[in-house]
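Lecture 7 notes: from sequence to structure.

We start with a single chain of 277 residues. Read the sequence below before looking at the structure.
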Amino acid sequence: MRNITKKGCAALLAVLVLAGCAQKTKEPSQQQESPAPNQEQSEVPAEQAPQMSPLTEESTSARKAYAAALKTLLDTNVLPDGTDFSDGYIGSIQDRERMAENKFTVYDVDGDGREELVLLYAAAPAMAGMAGFVYDYDAQKQALRSQLTEFPALTFYENGAVKADWSHNQGKAGEGFWPYNLYLYDQETDSYQEAASVDAWDRETFPEEYPSTADTSDTGRVYYIYRDLAAEWDQIDPVDESAYQSWLDDCLGGAGELSLPYLSLTAEHIQSLLAAG
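Now the structure, written as tokens:
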């Protein structure tokens, strides 16, 4: 199993927050919508591209459950969590072509020794309906169990962490940084726990009232690390890039990004989950 330094990550964040939380220098500005997620399959040669593991006796039950959930989505446009987009969906050629814009993979993304289903549903009627899911299979209940639901712009790390980009950029971060939520995998509960939400203020994009005193490295960008976004929005001070990077390094522990073998949501690809290796 992979080990994430949740305590160290949380402790460092607490220090950063306590270092200054009274000044209110950040105001929400115009939002930028995130481009539609596009998790393309790897373009490296086939022998180097990530591959899903072959079907085994141990993985058969989970694979069947994952395939059934994906087939229901393909046939009816009803998501595994019950969200229903079936109105007007008849499974036509046009419907299937749009459905193929969604991506999925079956991979052990949290390092617990079992494969999870990762589903990126980007072909919703509106951005509000887009979602990224991580599902585990509960063998005792013979059912899928949700581990994470987020906007479908997910980056997975070798230690089980997940970065989920926000659907909108509040504006002051500029084009060089996109806000995100960071989740850490908890082995004891077999679930993802939100570590923080991160936003930024770019001096070049919004120079007026830029909090230069926090920018001790003079990089032109400071960061807001929220333990509770709703409660702390516009209530905490930004931190210097060096402090932000130290916090992030502690959370990730040097883990690299996982390159996942995403497939488009088609009947052929769903059936491939049950093909013998």
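Helices lie at 6-18, 60-76, 93-99, 229-232, 241-252, 267-272. Keep this in mind for problem set 3.
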